C-alpha cells in the first residue's frame, strides 16, 4: 500500500525509503500515531534516529477491534541525521495507511 505525504516542504522526507533527513542541525519535534488490527498481538513501533531507537509506542489490548498507539518527542538532530519509524513487532491495520508521522524544526542551532 502506498504511503501518502500531505506536506513535505523542502522535500526532506524520502517517500520511497520513508525516512526524513534533516537539512540542518537543531531541535525538532516528531510525533506518530499508528493503528493495529484485532489480531491478539501487541505492536511496538519505534521512532529511529540513525537506526537507533529513541522512543516507542505499544498497543496490546486483546479485547478491542482496533487500538492506537502514539508518542512524540523533542529531539536534538544533526544535519543529515535520518529519522524514521520502525515496526518492531505486530501488524498495522492497512499497513501504514492509517498511520501518521510528523516532524518539524522547532529551533535551529
Automatic annotation (TrEMBL):
Pfam families: C1q. Keywords: Secreted, Signal. It is found in: Secreted. Its main location: secreted. Coiled coil: none annotated. InterPro entries: C1q_dom (IPR001073), Cerebellin_Synaptic_Org (IPR050822), Tumour_necrosis_fac-like_dom (IPR008983). GO terms for biological process: maintenance of synapse structure. Residues 1-109 form the C1q domain. GO terms for cellular component: extracellular region; synapse. The keyword Signal applies. PANTHER family: CEREBELLIN-2, CEREBELLIN-RELATED. This is Cerebellin 2b precursor. It comes from Sander lucioperca. The gene is cbln2b.
